[in-house]
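Hey, quick one: can you model this chain's 3D structure?
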Amino acid sequence: MNAINEQWPDARQTQVLRLITAGSVDDGKSTLIGRLLFDSKGVFADQLQAITGSKYARAPDSALDLALLTDGLEAEREQGITIDVAYRYFATPARKFIVADAPGHEQYTRNMVTGASTAQAAIILIDASRVREGELLPQTKRHSTLARLLGLRHLIVAVNKMDLVDWDQAVYERIHAAYRELAGRLGIESFHILPLSALSGDNVVQPSERTPWHEGPPLLSLLEALPLDEAARAAEPRFFVQWVIRHNGSGRDAFRGYAGQLAGGLWRPGDALRVLPSDEPVRIARILRGDEELEAARDGDSVTLVLDRDVDVSRGDLLVGAQARTQTGRDFEADLCWLDQQALNPARLYWLKQGTRLTQARVQAVHSRRDIHELRAVDWSGTLAMNDIGRASLRTRDPLVLDSYERQRATGAFILIDMATNQTAAAGLIRAA
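Sure thing. Here's the predicted structure for all 433 residues.
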């Protein structure tokens, strides 16, 4: 038992890395995740039995089709493609992982945005057999653009299916040069790149003897070593009130607490706060997690705050530090990724949801649209259709805290909801007040 405990540390102390796999169709994203799960012993026996001999298996000879571990929908297995984002979980002695498998088809770009919105790292797969001359595929460019737009700080380029090009170093070097040029055009400051084969497992969990010319670690070791996002922890704390908890409201032991998740920073009892939008000053009296009283709340903690006095605080209100730099307003510019099949209609009102705050909004104008082929924003005054990404001006009915997305994700991101259908119409990133 002691040996097991030494190998597997307390799960509460193990860091979690959220990552997404992206790239073009048939680049091997699902197979790569299946290989990570299989080689890290993250697959149960009944799961292996379920995919063994499956009528949808496409792996050669008697090899397991590991893509079936993530492609769970009947339509996905039938067509051999990924349609919806699939989340898988596994752990090593060093770290826990939450992996999102994003679809590669252009029509499912919105699904990739959904998966990447909570990720800390992205693995961009490239099929070496299809780009051996170094000309990257459009979806590789598109997903790299989205990873940059969403501010993912760790980018890993996995040159997959190297076994189909006989582990030719020249092919790998041409792809490396092409992606370096793409990264420069997108403003990606740094990225990791490595050759591998998800099907055979080379350079996925264990180093490969077939790549003596590659000096870097295999993929799993690289993922275990990535530094987690310290910028989020250092950001000014933001706390959207999700639920007002009341007990014995008329009794002597009346309780009132405010439940939510702390984004950024660290709070302790006694810290001075402000309630937005009312700007009422308060202090933290207690911090609770269930019945447990905590000495502090840190980034990512879901807690209940008890304040030192009764003030009007409701779901959707935002608690910030007393000295926090905040700007509130009703007019701002944002990047919109349009997710709905119905195109943007500037004449309509939409629900805007920022954290737990809900208000009405109108898109005043579209200023530019991102051209995936030119890899830049071009002037545009029309509408936005599904999967389009554009810069727009918005006006809301109620004032919002307008943190830029680069500064604070919790308050810098929002979604637009169609008021008639309740469909999510767009994901937005605040750029300027």
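One thing worth noting: Residues 169-186 form the longest helix (18 residues).
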